[in-house]
UniProtKB/TrEMBL annotation:
Keywords: Ubl conjugation pathway
Gene Ontology MF terms: ubiquitin protein ligase activity
Gene3D superfamilies: Leucine-rich Repeat Variant, Zinc/RING finger domain, C3HC4 (zinc finger)
Enzyme class name: transferase
Organism, as annotated: Ostreobium quekettii
Record protein name field: RING-type E3 ubiquitin transferase
The keyword Electron transport is assigned to this record: no
Entry keyword Cytoplasm: no
EC number: 2.3.2.27
GO biological process: protein ubiquitination
Amino acid sequence: MFGKVVNAARRRVSFNSRKKEKGKGIQSTDGVLEVNSFDDKLSNKSKTRSGDAPTIPVFHRRGFSLPSDAFYFDQRPVCIIPPKGVSSELIRGLQSGHRSEQRHAIRLLRDTQVDVKMAFVEAGGVPALMEHLKVTRPLKEMLQCLVAFLHTGEATVHDLFMEHGIVSVVARQLTMGTRSCRKWAARALPYLVVGSPEAQEEVLQAGGVEALAAMLHSAKEKRREAAAAALAALAKDNPAVQRQVASQGRLADLSAMLPKGRVATRCMVAATLANVTATDAAFQALVAEYGGEHLLRALKEEDEALRGEALRALACITAVPEGQKIILEKNGVPDLVELVQLGQTEREGWVLEAILNLTSKEDPTPDAVREDLIKRLLKVLLVGTASCREKSLRVLAQLSQLKSSGEWRIGEGQLIPVLVSLLVRSSGPIQEGAACVLANISDVCENRRKIFEAGAIKPLVSILGCTNKSARRWAGYTLSKLAGAEDVVLAILHEGAVDSLVRVLSEGGTDDERWAIDTLSTIAEAPYLWVRGLICSTGSIEVLLNFVASGSTEMQLASLRCLANMVDGHWESQQMVLGIGVNPLIRLLLNGDPALQRATIHVLARLSHLEACKCDVSVEWQSIRTLGRLLQADELIVREDAATVLADLATIRGPAMIMQSCNILVLLIEMLQCPGQEAIRQAARAIGNLARQSPQVKSQVGADTEALSCLADALDGSDFSTRAQAAHALASVMIKEPAFQCRVAQLGVVRPLVDMLHVPNTACNSQAARALANLVEEHHTNQVAVSMGGAMEQLLHLLADSSMEVKRNAAHAVANLTHHSTANQLAVVRGLGVPSLVGLLNGDDHEARSHAVRTFANLASSTEGEVVESRRAAIMPLISIISSSDDKSREQAARALANLACSEAEQELIARVHGIPPLVRLVQAGTHVAQEQAARALANLSCKDANLPAIIRHDGIPALVSLLRSTNGACRKQAAGALANLACNNAENCTAMVVAGGVPDLVGLLSSESEACREQAVRAVGNLACTRDNQQALVTGGAAGKLIELLNCRDERESCKQRAVRALANLAADNEANQLIIVREGAVPALLQMLSKGECTFQKETKRALMLLACGTDMKMHSSVEDVQSARAEVVASVLGVRLGSDTGAFAKMHFMAEAGDNEGVPRQLLCPITHELMVDPVVAEDGHTYERSAIVEWFRNRNSSPMTNEQLSTTRVVPNVLLHAIISDFNESKRQQNRM
C-alpha cells in the first residue's frame, strides 16, 4: 500500500517544470513557494536513478512551507498534501517495511507538513520512531525527523517524546554518535532541555556539555553553530551547566569565536555567553576580559539576532566593574544610547539593562549624550513596553542619585509630568520607579514646585495605601521632601497622607516600614505648628512611643527622631507625650546604647522645660548622672542637649543639689569655652539656674574668674540668645552678693549689658535688665556707672513698650536705680516713666507690680517738686494693692504709702481716696513687714489733724496697740511711733490708747533691746503724758523709773535721752504728785548730771524739765516737803544761774543774775527771741522755743517757719508756758522789792 501511495504521488508531479528550475524555488500562481529539500547523498542517488527528478512526492491539495532553518545545505522547503490514510501507512512502513521503505517514510515525515506530522503523532507513530532512534547507530534521517517534529512547537509532540526517553537518546548520540548524528542531536537538544531541569541534568550527567564543547572546535561551521545553540539552551538558568561551560578556559574559546564565522554561529556563541554570565560575577568578569570588546563590535552588525544576543551578554557583563571598564574605555556608551528607540523590543530592554548597570556607581555619559539619553528614555516612558519603562525609570533613578538633578536638569521638559502620569496609570515596579525618580529629583526646590504643580500629591498619597512596600517608601520620601512649602503641606494633609502613614505604622510596622516614620518626621519639620498638631491628632504619638518602648533599634531611633520634630515647640504634642508617659524615654536614657541615648536626649531637650517632665526625670536620680556623662560626649549636639535638660532640671532644688554633688558644674563651666553658640547658651543657662538654687554653686562660680570672664565675653557675641543666657547667669551669681557685684563690674559688663537693652530681642532685653538690677542692688558705685552708661532711658522705654517679662525685669532695675538716687528719680519722672509704672501697678503681674511699688516707694522719699507732682498718680493703685492678696506687693505698697504720707499734700490725697481703712486692716492682718509699713504710714498720716478722725473711726488705735505686742521689733517700733503721733496734742486719742491697754505695752517697750523701739516708746509716753488724766496711769505703770533709767544709761542715744527728758517734763507738768514721784525716783540728779556735761545738746529741754520740777506747789507733807523745796531751789539756780539767799526755801528771795548785755539786767531766758523784751504772756511754739504771744502770732501771719531755726512748722498752734510765766512773775516781784529798797 505504501508503494502505491508513493508511485501515485510521483506520477502527479510535473518533472519538466521542476527540472527547468534546476532545484531552485519557483513562484506558483497562488503565491506559494514549492520546492524540494533533501541532503547531498540522497539527491545524488535520486538523480542517478531517475536522471532528472527527485523521488520525494509533492502533494498539491494544500501548500505548506517548512521553517527557514531547513535540514539540508540548500535550505529548500517542500510543499506537500497528505493523501488519506497516510499516517497508518507511514507507521506500518516504519514498523514492518523494508529498510528502504523505512528510509522513505522517515524522509517523508521529516519533510512533510505539520498536519501530516500531527496526524502521525495522533495515530500513535511516536513509539515507532523511538524504536528507530534507540538503536545504537540510528540513521541520520531519524534525528532530522526528530528535529522536524520538535520544531512544530506542539506541546503534545514534545511531551510524547519526553515520555519515551528521548533525552537519553539524544544525550547518547551527543557523546557516541557519528559527527552528523552529533550535529543533529545538538540541534534537537534546545527543544528538549529548555524549561526542563531534569533534562538538563540528564544531559549534564551523560557528558553532553563536554561533547558540545568539543564540537565547538569542529571544522564545520554548522556543527559549531549547533553546538553553540545547544550550549546556550543548556546554560540557561542552570548553574551546574554554567560552571561546566565556564571551566577549562571554555569562556575564552567562546569569546574567541565572536569575531569570526557565520552570523548564526556568532549569535549562538553570544547567547551562550549571555546565559553563562547571567548570575555569576566571576564568569561576567572573565567574559568581559576575553570578549567584551568583541561584544561591543557585534553591536554594529546588521543581523538583528546577533545584535540582540550581544546586547544581552553586554547587559550581563556590565554588572561587574570589569565590564563597565571595558565599555567606558571603548566609548561604548554612545553606541548603547543610540540603540534606545521606543522601548518596544526585547533588544532595547537589554540596552537599558546595560545602561542601568553602567550608571550604578557613576555617571558615564557626557553632557550631550546624557541629554540625548534622557530624551530617549522619555520616549520609552511614553510608548515603551512595561519592562523597558521599568528599566528606564531605574536608569533615571540612578542618574538622579549620582548627580545633582539641578546640575544636569533632569527635572526639565516633560519628564516630571510623564512621571506623575505613570504614578496614576501604572502600578507595581513602574509606579515604584516613578516614585523613586521623583523622590531623587525633589531635592531641588524648582523640581519640587514642578512636581506639585503636575498634580503628584494625590497619586503619591494613594500609593501610601498600596501593598508595594518599596513604592510606598519612595512615595513617602517624595512627600517628605515636598513638605517644605505651605501650600504643598496643605495638599498633602488634605489628601490624608498622615492618616495613611499612621495606618501603615499601626498595622505593625517593621524595619521595612521605617520610611513611614521618616516621612512623618520630615513632614513634622515643616515650619508650621498646625502641621504638628494635625499629626498629633491622628494618634501618631502613641504609635511612636510604642516603637520607642518595644521596637527594634532602628525603629526606636527613627521614632525618637520623629518625636523630636513633633514636640519641638508644639505644646499639644508635648502634653500628649507627657500624658502617655516619658518612662520609655527615661529607660532608654539609662539603659540604651549610645546611639539611643543621643536620640533620647534630643527628645528630652524639647520636653524638659515642662514641669511634669522635670518631675519624671528627676525621680530617677541616676538619670542626672547619665546626663552628666553625656556632657562629656564627643558630639557637640549631644552635649548641648544634655546641658539643655540639666538647665531645665536646675530650676528645681532637688535636682540642683544632685548636680552639685555630681560635680556637673565643672563640666558646664568647661562648656563655656566650646566653639558652638548653642553649647555656650545652654551651659550659661544651666549655671544661672544652679546659682539661683544653690548658694554653694553661686559662691563657686563667683570665685571662678575664668567662668565669669567667659560669661562676660559672651555678652559681646552676635547671638542674641547666648548673650541673654550669659546675662542670666551673671545676674544669678550677683543676687545680694556685693563682692560678686564688684568682680563682675570690674569685667566691664556695664556697656554690653546696656547695649543689650537696645537690641531687638526680648530675651536679651529681659536678662540684661535683670543683670543690671542685680548689679546695682545696694551698690552705689555700680549704680552710678550704670546710670552714666545711659541705661535709665532705655529701661523706661522697655517699661512702656515690651513684653511683660521684660517690663518685670526693667521695673526691677528701675527700682534699684532709684534707691537713694535723686538723679535717677528725676530721670524716671522726666523720662515719662511714671505712667508705665502706674500701668504695672494696675496690672496682673505680681512681681512687676512689686517692683513698681518699690519704685514709687523710692520716689516718695524725694522732695523734688517734679517728683512730688508726678508720684501722686500712684496713690490710688497703691491703695488697691494694699487690699489685694499678694503679700509681697502689699508690703511694698504700704512702704510706698508710708513714704508718700510724709508730704502734707499727699497725706490729704491718701485720706481723700480712702486709703486709711486699708492701712488699718493691713495693721490688723498683714505680714510683719506689711504691718510695720502700714503702721509707719498711719504714723505719718496722723501728723495731720484732719486724718485723725478717720484713723480713730476705723479702729486704728486698737490695731496699733495690738501691734505693740507683736514679736517683730520693727512692728512694735512703728506702732509706738504711730501712737506717739496720734497722742500728740489730742486728749481723746490719748484716752483711747489708755482704754485700749496701750500704757503697759508702751512702758514695757521702754526697756526694749531695740534702740528704735525705746525711742518711739519714749515719744509715745511723752505725748501721752501731756494729758493729766494719763499721767497717773503712766506713773503708776512705772514710766518714770523707766525714763530715768534711760537717762542714766551711758550707751543710750542722745536723741532717746532728749525724748526721755521731754517725757519726764510732760509727766511733771501741773502735777505735783508726779513731780514728787519723779524726784523720788532720782530724776533731779540725772538731769543735773546731764546738764553739767558740756557735750549735752539738749540743755534747754533738760532745763525745762528741771524748771517744771522746781515750780510745783508745796505739798502738806510732814517729812519731805523741805527736801523737795530745797531740790526745786537748786534746780532753779542751775537753770537760771541765780544766787541763793540765806533763806533757800523762799523763791521771792532768789537773786536773779543778769548776764552782760541783757536789757536792764533781765536774764536772757526771760526775753522774747523776736522782740528781745521781757515776756508778759510767754507761749511755746512747735519748735519748742518760748515767745511772746503777740510777737509769735504776728510772725505766723506771714510765714510757717520757726523764728529760731527757720524750719517749716506743720502747725502754728502755741501753748502757754506756765512755768516761765511764774518765773517772770517772781522776777518782776523781785525787781519791785529791789526798787523799794
